[in-house]
Specification:
Elements (H helix, E strand, L loop, with lengths): L1 H15 L10 E6 L5 E6 L5 E9 L1 H7 L4 H9 L8 H10 L3 E3 L17 E9 L3 H13 L5 H19 L2 H13 L13 H6 L2 H11 L5 E7 L3 H12 L21 E7 L4 E11 L6 H22 L5 E8 L3 E11 L3 H17 L4 H18 L3 H13 L10 H6 L3 H11 L5 E7 L4
Parallel strand pairs: 2-6, 7-11
Antiparallel strand pairs: 1-2, 3-5, 3-6, 4-5, 8-10, 8-11, 9-10
Length: 444
Amino acid sequence: MRKLIIILTLAFAATVYCISAADDNVKYSREVLSNGLTIIIKHNPDSRIFALNILGKNRAVWDKSHQSGITDLVNRMLVKGTEEKNAEEVQAALDDIGAKLKTNDSPYIPYDDRYTWRAYSFIRFETIDEYAEDGLEILHEIIAKPSFDEAELEKIKSKVMGIFGMESGSTYKVCRDLYYSKLFENHPLSEKVLGDRRSLSGITSDDLTEYHKKYYTGGNLIISVVSNIEPETVMKWIKKRFGKLPSYNTKNIIMPDAIKAEGVVEISQPMEKEQVYIYLGNIVPGLTSDRAPAIKLAVEILSTRLKLNLREKQGLAYSVGAGVRFLENFGWFTCVMGTGHENFNIARDGILAEINKLKNEPIEQAELDKARNSLWGSMLMRNMSCINQAYNMAYFEFVNVGFDYDSDYKERLDKITVEDVQKAAGQFLDTDNYIQAYVGKAAK
């Protein structure tokens, strides 16, 4: 017990000071192995945390071509036993080195879906430097040699079925899935991360075994690490273990481009709930576009205005905001609002009115500066932990903008002018063409 307390104390301290290293002390190393595995290592001498993220590419494409939700089910089962250890022994091995392992977000924490994207899967692993090599050995066993025990599978299925039941009563989550089903109609991203009852019930242990052999292969994974251990040493450790993962031809497993909706496309579902949720948005250019920073700032300004004018001033919203997510070639902006069913029409019209104001009325320089500082500050806060730095490196590598994309994020934002934001809003925040989903009593 004392050993574990010491480890956790050191881990906490290292997390707090993860970004304290000066830029000239940080080193990067990147290599693609012969089996297709991409490895990215960031050396931070001022942190004792060993943080590792594994990104599985194009989750939704795989799920669509196999069985909806199968990637999530595989990830949940990874910690439930290996060829050599049962679930309790796996957890004991992790506990012995004070390691944290996360393979899916918690469905019980509202809006806890920052890391769970339909576009890819993740595994987040943390320990301290002293146990880094031991941790890699345990992690490799979990990733490369899962047992997919039938009894454990039934327990996991039962748990996920319970999540389905919980989410079916949430106007927010029902509306989110409804929105994605229409925004990405006939596209892999319409697939739910968890799948559905029908797909889940039909997945067997043998299905997981066969799927795992293809999904957890070198060419489908990006491993990113942040550590104070020399990159050459970490690279050697990873190659020794994960370099043995089989290769697999992932040439046809690619994310197709999404098509922007034309006209106003409405989709709704009635629920006997006092609270109504509204999702509204459309497809925008991807992160590789030179317009992406301006779009990001435009949506940030819109989100602030929605909160101020619709929630604070008019009292229309339980919650409201706007955001944008990017893949390589396309992204999507979304306005989300929870309101009372009696306010549905005025709330929906209020969202559109705020978008039109952003497009057609002058933006003050001070407002742009505030949005820029907000995005910059949010990025700094996210990167306070080594594991988030590792996660972001893998994401940026995946969307093909360079694993160190956020290293000059502020400079990129500083180049954007009021005119750039106004132009981006006018071109991409389209009030003539959008998807609108709503769920609740107002949905007739």
